[in-house]
Write a structure and sequence with these properties.
This protein is mainly β. The termini are far apart. A hairpin with a 6-residue loop joins strand 4 and strand 5. The chain is globular and about 40 Å long. It has no helices and eleven strands. Strands 2, 4, 5, 6, 9, 10 and 11 form a seven-stranded mixed beta sheet that branches. A four-stranded antiparallel beta sheet has the order 1-3-8-7, with no helix packed on it.
């Protein structure tokens, strides 16, 4: 699965961003979609996941209540809506599905 994440950028603390993950060459059908993030020198950490039907989601405690994961199989796209961003959310975000990983997108939250 070829994935492309986008939507990162610079935002002030308390602001919002919406990341997109597009699947090329293969649909999301039957595959869950996950978002992870990684800071320099640290391991990649789980952020959120959604099952292929879209009816079940899971979040890391650090983002619960602030981030929302969603998907549209017909559009081969998944999103991560991020609200109330804090400087600690400043990292590179990656999407994954079906064993594939997309190139990350950088989110920078200024204080």
């Amino acid at each position: 699965v070829q994935l492309q994440a986008s939507g990162g950028g610079l935002v002030q603390a308390g602001g919002s961003l919406r990341l997109s993950c597009v699947s090329y060459g293969r649909t999301f059908t039957n595959n869950a979609v996950g978002w992870f993030r990684q800071a320099p020198g640290k391991e990649r950490e789980f952020v959120a996941a959604i099952n292929w039907r879209g009816g079940s989601t899971n979040y890391a405690d650090s983002v619960k209540g602030r981030f929302t994961i969603s998907r549209d199989i017909a559009q081969n796209t998944a999103w991560l809506s991020m609200n109330n961003l804090v400087p600690e959310d400043t990292v590179v975000y990656f999407c994954t599905s079906g064993g594939g990983w997309g190139r990350g997108t950088l989110v920078t939250v200024s204080s």
